Amino acid sequence: MIRTDLANERTLLAYGRTALMMAGTGGTLIKFFGESPDMLVLGILLLILGLVMFGTGIARFQIKRKQINGRV
């Protein structure tokens, strides 16, 4: 059971890592290539996707934690 909890936590960290990379890339595009409309749109899109990815990771973590603990 402990291994399952740890696997769930690793998955949450993977979602967080991916979200941080997306948001960081988006911020970099905005900062360095913001004068280009295409890069600005892409940067904003990546920032939004990073936030959505982080929210998805948290939601999945909580759902799986409840399932693991037998509350669902």
From TrEMBL:
This is Membrane protein. The keyword Transmembrane applies. The lineage of its organism: Bacteria, Pseudomonadati, Planctomycetota, Planctomycetia, Pirellulales. Its main location: membrane. The keyword Transmembrane applies. It is a multi-pass membrane protein. One of its GO terms (cellular component) is endomembrane system. Residues 3-65 form the DUF202 domain. Keywords: Membrane, Transmembrane, Transmembrane helix.
